[in-house]
Amino acid sequence: MWATGFWTSLSDKLLTILARIRSRNNGSLRKKNHHEEITGQTHLHNQGKAKERPGTAVVVRAGENDSDNNSETEIELREVVKEGHDRAEPNQFELLKVLGQGSFGKVFLVRKIVGADSGTLYAMKVLKKATLKVRDRMRTKMERNILVDVRHPFIVRLHYAFQTEGKLYLILDFLRGGDLFTRLSKEVMFTEEDVKFYLAELALAVDHIHSLGIIYRDLKPENILLDADGHISLTDFGLSKLPLDDQQAYSFCGTVEYMAPEIVNRKGHSFAADWWSFGVLMFEMLTGSLPFQGANRKETMTQILKAKLGMPQFLSQESQSLLRVLFKRNPANRLGAGPEGINEIKKHPFFATIDWDKLLRKEIQPPFKPAVSRADDAFYFDSEFTSKSPKDSPGIPPSANAHELFRGFSFIAPCLLDPEEALTQGTLINKPQPAPTETLTKLPFVKSNSVNDEYDLRDEIGRGSYSICRLCIHRATRIEYAVKVIDKSKRDCQEEVDILLRYGHHTNIVTLRDVYEDEKSVYLVMELMRGGELLDRIRSLKTFSEREASGVMHTVISTVSYLHQHGVVHR
Q1: 263 among the known binding-site residues?
Q2: A single Pfam family, by name (predicted)?
Q3: What is the pLDDT, as a whole number, of residue 240?
Q4: Is the dihedral of CA 237, 238, 239, 241 positive or negative?
């Protein structure tokens, strides 16, 4: 009995390896690419992913009729460069190699040639504004905003962000080990010990993202890079989603083979979708193949929704057990989605040998260390690109009717600023989560009861770095207002409240109606400005007439002058 089981298991494993090798020789194995959209547009990802894969791994992006399209509002990008401190510019970086290329731009290996970090190697992601569609501009800004606030050992770090008239620049860690897909392609499949290590580091990264209220939505080997020591670094946040509190997202996006069933059927998804993709990644690393993959995209999605998982018998019982609880089609039953969150995954027998504290401190030796002879060695990147002469071609400015204002895009990581400057930047990077601000109840205008007692809070109508703006309806009068919900752990809004109370009677300054406070948030109820943001109007028109522009500027100047007369700087 034992011998029969052994040879059956060995036979299964050999057949899987042979199939993997055969598919690679036939050209059907997934190849690195910048995943195609339905429209065929190539999307530039981080550090060297540019070749198209002939398989069905495509990024499917929701169209204008997407059910949550209205919730994807303009993202306010806060300015992090202190006055008097030089912003980063393209001429501060020496181009060394091309790491990847797509229709939107390129990724270069660069060396900083000025400043405190002179000589440091970075990956420079360059995007052409004119070729970015509206949703891609939004996602570029979303990625920038997320990377500003994320500081984690297993997530790529943003060091600078800046722009020219025609281009956007993101300066990121250079992960010289390449991506996990490259290693997986060369080794066919990993041992369970290798998989356990990579999944454990990835689980900590995903949990950190979730703790910030972000759904990642694009877990796959291409988005997992290896540093010089072999530790992982999660990258590419262009498809990530900030959920609306306890509500769900509905965009149909991601790479098809890694999509959770709830994304495929468009019934709404949340953080649990990432744990399904986590399971797909685990299956692929253990077996060398994908759990659900049809002849085309439609067949693949049908399998994700209905097909029974074929579990290779050569996998250990612990591996099979973890895969089964990750591949629960009901997201509420999926491991990681319960009340204990990440602890459900940490406690699973598959991870029994992992010391999670040591892992977070990078005290566990990675199973593979990239063999690099020099700091600027790009051996693990595609020679099709690294052999090219690095040249940052001039960017064409976006056309007037497609112009996108990337407000406050510039960024310098606080660790690169003087200590005093870094302390004033108001960013989460390199700092522990700040304690909640002192209560506002010392202001007589703050009401002691709950905002929900008097107002019915409705849909999100705007989102900033520290706050969310919602439509709300006064329960007694049924009059509509806007309520700005400010996270107390990120911003002290006492000065803002005081200014609005003092000067809100001005014709062109929004009127503050009520202020509420609870343990986590401050709620500023204000008049609802039905005309929307000036930015939206600028976007919707090809040009402003001089009469319109002068009227707008006259109002802005007179209002700012009024504030200056009373000692208030808007900033």
Answers
A1: no
A2: Pkinase
A3: 58
A4: positive
Answer yes or no: pTM beyond 0.85: no
**Active site residue: 31, 97, 167, 220, which one?**
220
66 is catalytic: no
Tokens representing 7? 């040879």
Write b or e for each residue in 94-122: b if 16 or more Cβ atoms lie within 10 A of its Cβ, otherwise e. Answer: ebbbbbbbbebbbbbbbbbeeeebeebbb
The predicted structure's pLDDT at residue 413:
62
Kindly give the pairing relationship between strand 512-517 and strand 446-447: parallel
Reference 485, options 451, 444, 513, 439; nearest CA is 451
Ligand-binding annotation for 103, yes or no, is yes
Distances (CA, A) of 11 to 8, 55, 386: 5, 27, 40
Residues of the domain holding 522:
446-540
Of 136, 194, 218, 514, catalytic: 218
List 179, 196, 223, 274, catalytic entry: 223
Establish whether 321 is an annotated binding residue.
Answer: no
If residue 272 lies in a helix (H) or strand (E), which one and from where to where?
helix 272-287
Is 220 an active-site residue? yes
Amino acid identity, residue 271? Answer: F
Q: Is 106 annotated as a binding residue?
A: yes
Is 40 annotated as ligand-binding? Answer: no
CATH number of the CATH domain containing 127? 1.10.510.10
How many angstroms separate the CA atoms of 274 and 223, rounded?
13
How many domains does one find in the chain?
Answer: 2
Q: What is the pLDDT of residues 350-393, one digit of tens each?
A: 999 999 999 999 999 999 888 876 777 777 777 777 777 787 76
**Strand ranges for 166-311 from DSSP E:** 167-173, 224-226, 232-234
Residue 369 and residue 465 in one domain = no
CATH at 464: 3.30.200.20
